[in-house]
Amino acid sequence: MKAVIQRVSEGSVSVDGQVKGEIGKGLVILLGVAEDDERKDLDLLVRKIIGLRIFDDENGKTNLSLKDVDGELLVISQFTLLADCRKGRRPSFFHAGSPAKAEAMYEDFIKACRTEVRKVAHGVFGAVMKVSIQNEGPFTIVLDSREL
Fold first, then answer.
1. pLDDT tens digits for 88-105?
2. Total domains, the chain
3. I want to staple 91 with a disulfide (CB 3.0 to 4.6 A). Which of 29, 83, 111, 147 is the partner?
4. Domain boundaries, position 87
5. Statement: the pTM of the whole predicted model exceeds 0.90
6. Is 80 a catalytic residue?
7. Of the listed 79, 109, 115, 140, which one is catalytic?
8. Which of 78, 109, 125, 140 is catalytic?
9. What are 48-51's contacts with CB under 8 Å, separation 24+?
């Protein structure tokens, strides 16, 4: 499971011109599910993301977690994070989870986040979405459950 985490002052996701989810200060998570991902990958990523100390304290040091700042989450499914670009010019998505598996893991990820965070907004699985991100910093981190 892969996640791109961006610290934001605000973020939103729209489908067909309608806002489906929006947040203020917090994190936007672009989430990719691989076919061989398991629940342990999901749990590991949720714990890591919620606990990352990437928000500024009163001295401007990145010393506070999402929970410390009462931040919000916006979770967007993004299978393209599983792209394999080693051969040729067309990415392969062979390792991306099947739609059924990826959607189930995406929904479980959102549920797990809701047990830890006050507000968790999300996109629409499988839809063409427009994501607006006001990246703060900019501060962007890439996590892969297999590397944690």
1. 999 999 999 999 999 999
2. 1
3. 83
4. 2-147
5. yes
6. yes
7. 79
8. 78
9. 48/143, 48/148, 49/3, 49/5, 49/113, 49/143, 50/113, 50/116, 50/117
